[in-house]
Design brief:
about 280 residues, mainly alpha, two-stranded antiparallel sheet, about 70% helix, globular
Length: about 280
């Protein structure tokens, strides 16, 4: 029997949700506000929240000092490339685990997920040497491959969960009608799993966009994405908080806009929503 929701309980839940949401968003809001302050106001104590002399000077300085569009383009190529490559690899893997499982399928899935618990720095040196040997250090293709491999366990897990919710009888009917394996995946499975694939694409794109450890260690200048753009405002002379905040705001703006317009799909992906 469903529990009755009283107006008081609903108001309390709404207030609690807004409070938690504002607390989670506050660091981003504070970064955006700081980007419109002078350097002196950015480090003033006590800090001012809204009542300060607003300025856009920091954005002009950042744009003049750095080629923002080059970093942005590298981020788009690296995040987009690793996402598309990951989907191409993960769809057949998730299909086989969901519809042709073996006695070790769950063990394999758990092993894949356990690799995400490995500290990245533990494998940095061998990967760095491999990149040097292959001549792909500080290249977009190198980062596309390594970010695809890093996020592949999550992509496979999400797709596996979605595929498991699709009735196997539908695929069996397609086989009885003479559909080949690739037709079964592309013409029957993929259209039914569009919401799940879209959620996986979005989540993987965001993870690749925000990846800092590998992008900072495997790039120098040519393939540096927006994470390197932000890090360039940390220097031995100190932190320039206002300019650093302006660079951070410029770096997160595209992904914030993408997340805002795709929040429904993201929530569904993060909660492993059902395939209708």
């Amino acid at each position: 029997m469903a529990r009755a929701v009283t107006p008081r309980r609903k108001a309390f839940s709404t207030a609690a949700a807004w409070t938690i949401g504002l607390l989670l968003f506050f660091p981003i809001l504070w970064t955006i506000l700081t980007s419109f302050k002078t350097e002196a106001e950015a480090i003033a104590s006590p800090p001012s929240f809204l009542f300060f002399d607003w300025t856009t000077e920091n954005y002009g300085v950042v744009q003049e000092r750095s080629n923002y569009m080059r970093f942005l383009w590298n981020s788009v190529i690296i995040a987009g490339g690793s996402t598309i490559l990951g989907i191409i690899v993960a769809v057949p893997a998730a299909w086989s685990m969901a519809f042709v499982p073996s006695a070790r399928t769950k063990d394999i899935l758990l092993w894949m997920l356990s690799t995400k618990m490995l500290p990245a720095v533990g494998v940095l040196y061998p990967i760095y040497l491999i990149f040097i040997e292959l001549g792909i250090l500080d290249t977009r293709i190198g980062l596309v491959v390594v970010l695809m491999l890093i996020n592949l366990p999550i992509i496979v897990w999400m797709l596996y969960t979605y595929f498991r919710e699709i009735p196997g009888e539908i695929l069996e009917a397609a086989r009885m009608d003479g559909a080949a394996l690739w037709q079964e995946i592309t013409s029957v499975l993929a259209p039914m799993a569009v919401p799940g694939i879209a959620s996986t694409l979005l989540l993987n794109f965001i993870l690749a966009w925000n990846e800092a450890f590998w992008t900072l260690n495997l790039t120098a200048a040519t393939a540096a994405p927006l994470t390197a753009f932000i890090a360039s405002y940390s220097s031995p002379e100190g932190l320039f908080f206002a300019k650093l905040s302006a660079a951070s705001t410029m770096a997160i703006a595209p992904i914030l806009i993408l997340g805002w317009f795709s929040q429904k799909q993201l929530v569904r992906g993060l909660t492993f929503g059902a395939v209708k």
